[in-house]
Amino acid sequence: MADVKKEHMTFNDLENWLNERRVTEVECLVPDLTGVARGKILPREKFTEDRGMRIPEAVVAMGVTGELPSQGPYYDVVNPTDRDMQLRPDASTVRIVPWASDPTAQVIHDCYDREGKLVPFAPRSVLRRVCELYAALGLEPVVAPELEFYLVARNTDPNTVLRPPIGRSGRAETSRQSYSIDAVNEFDPLFEELYDFCDKMGLNVDTLIHEAGAGQMEINFFHAHPLGLADEVFFFKRTVREVALRHDMYATFMAKPIAGEPGSAMHVHQSLINKATGKNIFSNDDGTPSEAFFHYIGGLQRYLPAAMALVAPYVNSYRRLSRNTAAPINTEWGFDNRTVGIRSPISSPEARRIENRVIGVDANPYVAMAMTLACGYLGMQKKIKPKAEMKGDAYLAPYSLPRSLGEALDLLRNEPDLHEILGKEFITVYTEIKELEFEEFMKVISPWEREHLLLHV
């Protein structure tokens, strides 16, 4: 087994891997629309016998509330008879569950219909679809995500505001601590266990920093193929939540969990490699930016507004995207400019890349990777030229991103180019589920409304 690379593992290799580690249980996982782990836990012997399992196809087509539409276009895609789909393990994703008391493995599965085709609205299927478009061009996308998240004190009452957790000093943070080493050290026991778990799972996490918000952290990943990295982000989110609970606090990936504090993003760096030459196509031979580089940016500028519902998937997501909150408000682009939505960091020509800063950390990582790659793909295919580089403060430019989930959903429904790339079935299921979530949210009366409207209107 030591000689078999994960990406080349067969089911027999997977069996040997499980045997070598004396695994007694297998968590069979499938990421749903929200990025939540669904599936079943099987005894080791049952996993071998089944070589996959069946669950209702609606499991990957539910919203964050678990509700389903009662009627409408959703059921033109998801069969109303609640039929099964088959889950097949992707052996390359197998990892030990480091916090389990007995030897337990976790394996991500792909979703197939009864004809043996990938279920088109499963998030992992959507990312596979986009990666295959690049493969057909002889290109391999390379991405590197940066995840921001908050550590917060335990909170069992949804009507109570979230607060920073207590660190080793016995005090909670009350001020901004960007890049503070001492502020990170307040949570050393938690991060030591987190890194230990990530190492046991083979997650390629890189840098840990303290972000601007009180209790806000950031973890960066090494660059790799989009599907593998989306899997790692999926595993990582699950791991951070578990470790935080073990240290009597919560980890949250809400885009805007605390009023008055910055929101949390998932910045995605991306470049494209010509598989025949091994070269980054974003740079010319003389080291200057290539046409593909500019067309990719043009695609992001053209399609990001219509794609926002995919990477700002909740009402809360739009609270992050406002002026002077360290989150972009438009699709301006620039070199080494953190006020824009599309940034190209300082790098060598070989490492030239584009950073999408619009994506919220609450986005499903598979959907987020598929979205940003789809926009860039369309830009290159249609040779879309970008606007002039923003060399100043992009917050002084007008908003060009939708301001609410309702507006974002309307834009997504009316952008056929994205439907073609991501799949019409996926767009139908996604927009119907998000519309249902939006309607559920609108039934809730907020404290702001009671404070300002109760006796004043």
UniProtKB/TrEMBL annotation:
Co-factor(s): Mg(2+)
Alphabetical keyword list: Ligase, Magnesium
Listed GO MF terms: glutamine synthetase activity
SMART domains per the UniProt record, alphabetical: Gln-synt_C
Residue ranges constituting the GS catalytic domain according to the UniProt record: 123-457
Enzyme class: ligase
Position of the signal peptide: none
EC number: 6.3.1.2
Family: Belongs to the glutamine synthetase family.
Name of protein: Glutamine synthetase
Organism (species): Rhodoferax ferrireducens
